[in-house]
Structure formats: C-alpha cells, structure tokens
Amino acid sequence: MSRRAVEWPTLVVAAAIAGGMAAILLWHRHVPTPLLLVALAVLGAWYNSLQHEVVHGHPTRWPAVNTALAIVPLGLVIPFGAYREVHLLHHRTPGLTDPDADPESFYLSADTWARLGPIRRRGVTVLRTLSGRMLFGPPIVAIRWWSGTASGGLTQRAAGRLVAHAGGVASVLVAVRMAGLPMWVYVLGVAWGGGSLSLLRSFAEHRFVDGANRSAMVRSGRFFSLLFLNNNLHTAHHARPRLAWYSLPAASERLGADRIAAGGAGLYSGYGEIARRYLLRPFDEPVGPGRTQPITVPEVADGCRRREKAPRLI
C-alpha cells in the first residue's frame, strides 16, 4: 500500500494538540488547576503519540515537514532526534525485551540484577507495578536518560543535538512564563502527567515469551485509542511499522493480531484490565532473558535492519 502525500487525520491531530496548548496558555486563569493538570497530561501524552508517528515517517512525504511537527520539546526531557534513533533501533531488534539489545526494554540483565543491593532491587520491583511505573517512571526515565548520556561521552553530533534541545526547552519555558502559567503546573502536567500516561501505554506492550510474539494487543476504547494513536495495537504496529495509525485497526484484523498476541505477550480487553491485574503486582520478573535466538514470529518488517549496539532510552 502506497502512502498518501499528506495524511490529513494526523495533521488534524497535530492541529488539535497545538490548539489545545495555545488555549491553555491563553485562558488558563479561567480553568481550575486540577482540570489544567489533566488537560496538560492528555495533551502531553497525545504529543508523545504524535512524535511516535513522525518517527515512522508520517504524516507527509517530506521529512523536514514531519520533523517540524514533532521537534518542539514539550515534554522537556528527551531530544526528539535521540528518541527517533533509539525507537527505530528498538524496531530493528529481533530479540525484543532482550536487555542487552533492546534499548526500550524494562528488563534487566542477570549481571545488572546481581550488582544491585536490596533497596535498588525493591525499587526495580516497584517499577514493575503499574502504580510504580506511572508515579515514579517519568523522573526515573529522565534521570536514566541524562545519566546515560553523561556517562557515554559527547560526540560533536550529540553535543549539537543537546544544544538545540536546550534552546527548544528554553523557548517552551519562556512561552509558559510569558503566558503566566505557573511553571510547576506545566512541568507536573505535561512532563510528569503526560509521561505517566505514555508509560501506561507502554507498560504491558512487550513481554518476554520464549519462541512466541513479544508484542501485546490492548483493545482499548475510543479515548485511549485516539490518545495513543492506536499504538495499543502493538502486535499490528510491529508487524507493519510503516502504517499510519488510522490504518492499524483494519491491519490488525487482516493479520489476526489478537490471536497472535493471545498466544504470546498477551491480549488485554483494555487498560482497566491491566490496572486490575498489575496496579500493585509486578507485571513480570525484572530479569530479562539476555542474549537469545531470534523469536519465531516475525516482529520486524518493512525493511528494518538490526544493529548490534543499543543506546538505552530507559
């Protein structure tokens, strides 16, 4: 299936996010703070979903136009270019969830687990629960990202990216300050709340299953499907990563993605089911499988290739 030159549904989403953020900056004084926080969290998570679409080459044929829609660091933490590189590497990794290869894996290697003391092991276990992931996940992801960047050394390219990112963050914060929106409201709403909602989406989307598909399916309602731009249909997304978000429901039916997910990482009726099962109980063991043979169900498609070394995002 050839792509459209312009995917209007995605542009409508981008316009809705921009309009929502502008409305909050203009009229926040007339909105109760709790409602502001909820609105900012939703817009922050929606923007994260839009960035994910752009990473996969949407919504136009022109990369510069696509990047312009997603490069503003509303979430403040991770440079868009770095997220793009890491996420595409995640798609190139046949052994999804492998902590030695998959840069988006929440699993730890056996060696890393052995080096942790009891307090840090307890912290890792808490992060395996949905409540722990959503409450503590955003700042921990930020700390891990920046500590990993600092320890890895800066190439000229990475330094330039960080300078550009710092300029973008400064521009966002200046706009927030000029609008009179309290800085803590913005940071708590977009960076923490939006990040938390995005971590809800990713919480159960990958699970180590030996010899089976490691991407899950979450059959959520209209709100979460739109908020996450159908990335909850994760088996279908990994099988067809170049499809636009609005094409994934039909593709998942054609692929039999529900059946594939049910025999592997899991098929969930919605995020309510995930909350009932894992709000206070760990999703899985924290220690991942380590280096394994590629799984038998093809999860990497559309010309993605594997690279050996993965810079970790989380």
Give a verbal description of the structure.
58% of the residues lie in helices and 1% in strands. The chain is mostly helical. It has one domain (8-278). It has a two-stranded parallel sheet with strand order 1-2. α2 packs across α9.
What's the arrangement of secondary structure elements?
Elements (H helix, E strand, L loop, with lengths): L7 H20 L5 H23 L7 H8 L9 H13 L17 H6 L2 H10 L2 H23 L3 H24 L3 H20 L14 E2 L3 H6 L6 H6 L8 H8 L1 H6 L4 E2 L2 H8 L36
Parallel strand pairs: 1-2
Helix pairs in contact: 1-2, 2-3, 2-9, 7-9
The rounded Rg comes to 19 Å
Structural class: mainly alpha
Number of domains: 1
How do the SSEs run, as a string of H and E? HHHHHHHHHEHHHHEH
As residue ranges, the low-confidence spans are 291-313
Largest beta-sheet details: 2 strands, parallel
**Strand portion:** under 5%
Strand count: 2
Task: Count every helix, treating DSSP H or I runs of 4 or more residues as helices.
Answer: 14
- The N- to C-terminal Cα distance equals 34 Å
For the biggest β-sheet, the strand order reads 1-2
Taken from the alpha-carbon principal axes, the silhouette is globular
* Average predicted confidence as pLDDT: 88
Helix coverage percent: 55-70%
